Amino acid sequence: MTDTSPSRWLPAHLRRVFAGLLVAMALAALDQSIVNTALPRMASDLGGLSHLSWVVTAFMLANTVSTPIYGKMSDMFGRRPFLLGAVALFLIMSMLCGLAQTMGQLIAFRFVQGIGAGGIMTLSQTVVSDLVTPRERVRYQGLFSGAFAFSSLAGPLLGGALTTLLSWRWVFYINLPLGALALALLWTALPPSPPRRRHRIDYAGALLLVIGASALLLLFSLGGSLFAWGSAASCGLGAVALVALAGFLFVETRAAEPVINLALFRIGSFATGILTMSCMGFAM
To answer: Domain containing 240: what range?
Structure first.
């Protein structure tokens, strides 16, 4: 029989890199679901039951809006500093989330933790494209899909076990040893960043994207629960999202180095892949 294990077809010099990337990806994915089963205990200890949904919403909001910005900035200045910075930020915020004494503190720390998770989620996969050929890329990407799927399934079970046996704070503390391992592996194994050159950062495009994506996510997260779909808040968020995203498309067609190169959507395979991934994300 042919040996198809990762150690067989993964070059030795890449094994530490991929080990660190997989651990980091698993942590970021795990934190999207591990917190859910601990929410009632958090509300019992910290109070602020009416704001409990923000523990999840703040994380997802920051995660979503930071992802394309991490991608663009790493294209300009290299993957290494942004990925290491994202992992370090995620770990610091995990510790602070576990130490939070009020619901407001927990929500604020979760928001910043989501910024770190956004970098991990996108850059852990983007680094793969820098290290292997396009022909091999799908095979390696399968490892990350598996890690994401496993973490999504294990999160609620692990969160419930930690909350019951120890404390809800351990759903955050569990990130620290695993994240430190990932950080050590990536620090020693990631290739150095390329020499820097001057770039023209698309500040306007980034700001409009953050505003538009935030308004849209808040509308779909809170509409029908915190406020009615036909309320002034819903209409206001919808209007802000529409204007900001329309402005974003306008700016991107004129920016020297746009956050998202809209010309890519003229490539049939690229557009189809984006549509497919969007449908999968929406369904999940």
So the answer is: 203-283
Instruction: Tell whether pTM > 0.85.
Output: no
Q: Are residues 82 and 138 in the same domain?
A: yes
Is residue 7 pLDDT above 50, yes or no? no
The contacts found for 14-17 with CB under 8 angstroms, 24 or more apart, are 14/131, 14/132, 16/185, 16/188, 16/189, 17/127, 17/131, 17/185, 17/186, 17/189, 17/190
Q: How many CB atoms lie within 10 A of CB 220?
A: 12
Confidence of residue 270 (pLDDT cuts 50, 70, 90): confident
The number of folded domains in the chain is: 2
Query: In this structure, is residue 131 part of a structural domain?
Result: yes
Contacts 24+ apart (CB under 8 A), 104-107: 104/48, 104/51, 106/42, 106/46, 106/55, 107/51, 107/54, 107/55, 107/58
Claim to verify: residue 152 and residue 17 sit in the same structural domain: yes
In a domain, 239, yes or no: yes
